């Protein structure tokens, strides 16, 4: 009984909930690791279906700067439906009701990763990024 109460309290503190898509997380973005990985309430989340170049490349560094400025002090809601990738949960996050990966791709900082997105972001890619190579996992 005590363990159940502790789990309930920790879920509330972390902003976790269950929904039709799996676990949900809602809260302030506490850190931006790179262009496709954020932390919400210190929980790392890899944005599903999004490919952003790695840090150390101009495009990857620019993407991190864009995402950092976009999310500074803002809250997001995420649906965590996928398995973990390294130490990160995989999910789709929304900023003011708009899919965060869609925003990043539309702004020219990322590409659709069709293996995981099933192509849902392809139409948002701008011409300037369509020649960026996709990693093999996409």
UniProtKB/TrEMBL annotation:
Ranges for domain TNase-like = 23-111
* Name of the protein in its database record: TNase-like domain-containing protein
Q: Which organism is it from?
A: Kiloniella laminariae
Q: Where is the signal peptide?
A: 1-22
Keyword field: Signal
Write down the SMART domains for this protein, in alphabetical order. Answer: SNc (SM00318)
* Nucleotide-binding recorded as keyword: no
Q: Does the keyword Oxidoreductase apply?
A: no
Instruction: Fetch the Gene3D superfamilies from UniProt.
Output: 2.40.50.90
């Amino acid at each position: 009984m005590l363990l159940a109460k502790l789990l309930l309290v920790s879920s509330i503190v972390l902003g976790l909930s269950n929904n039709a898509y799996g676990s949900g997380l809602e809260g302030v973005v506490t850190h931006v690791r790179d262009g496709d990985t954020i932390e919400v309430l210190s929980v790392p989340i890899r944005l599903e279906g999004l490919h952003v170049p790695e840090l150390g490349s101009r495009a990857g560094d620019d993407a991190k700067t864009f995402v950092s400025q976009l999310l500074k002090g803002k809250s997001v809601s995420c649906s965590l439906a996928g398995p973990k990738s390294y130490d990160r949960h995989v999910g789709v996050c929304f900023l003011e009701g708009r899919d965060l990966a869609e925003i990043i791709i539309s702004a020219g900082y990322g590409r659709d990763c069709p293996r995981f997105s099933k192509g849902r972001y392809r139409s948002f890619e701008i011409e300037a990024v369509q020649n960026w190579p996709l990693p093999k996992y996409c």
